[in-house]
Amino acid sequence: MALMVYMSVIVFASGEPSSPNPLENWLFEATLPGIDEELFFRGVAVVVASQAFPQLRFNIPQWIAPFTITTGMFTLLHLFALSHGHISFHWFSTLVGVLPITLGLYVIRYRTGSVFSGMVAHNMANLTNVFLTTS
Predict the structure, then answer these.
(1) CA proximity to 105, closest of 118, 119, 116, 96
(2) Helix (H) or strand (E) run with residue 1 in it
(3) How many helices (H) and strands (E) does the chain have?
(4) How many CA atoms lie within 13 A of 91 on its CB side?
(5) Which residue spans within the chain are E strands per DSSP?
């Protein structure tokens, strides 16, 4: 719920909504990003990073390495967008919009121990964005 509220604030603060989205965009945002991104970033990548860095020095908590690696990868992935054959770089919207949501999704994964909760939250945040930006 907090991620949906945060997404709403970001969309309203960013200004004018975009053009209407077709039904396929709604269906895509309701399913695929949450499933594939959560399975990879908060599923496989967290496990691999945890095994690659089983114990850190200087009493640093074990979850710091997987958190930093997966959050960095997810954020970097969302820095660039391909639209109509052009690649664009969105550093501000990524910093303000994606990074906090990424942090929230990692907290959900860490606290619940499940990727499924993150999938639901991820898809709800994406649907909130689509709903608010559809004219």
Answers:
(1) 118
(2) none
(3) 7, 2
(4) 0
(5) 80-83, 86-89
Q: Which two tokens stand for residue 27?
A: 């269906």
Look at the chain and report how many structural domains it folds into: 1
Domain of 29, in residue numbers: 2-133
- In the numeric block, which tokens belong to residue 86? 């052009």
Question: 114: Cβ–Cβ under 8 A, 6 or more apart, which residues?
Answer: none
Return all residues near 48 (Cβ < 8 A) that are at least 6 apart. none
Mean pLDDT of the 107-131 span: 90
Higher-confidence residue of 9 and 100: namely 100
- List the one residue out of 29, 23, 71 whose CA is nearest residue 46: 71
Whole-angstrom distance, CA of residue 116 vs CA of residue 91: 28
In angstroms, the CA 68 to CA 10 distance is 24
Q: State how far the alpha carbon of 127 is from the alpha carbons of 4, 8, 11, 64, 68, in Å.
A: 9, 10, 12, 30, 26
Instruction: Look at residue 16 in the predicted model and tell me its pLDDT.
Output: 47
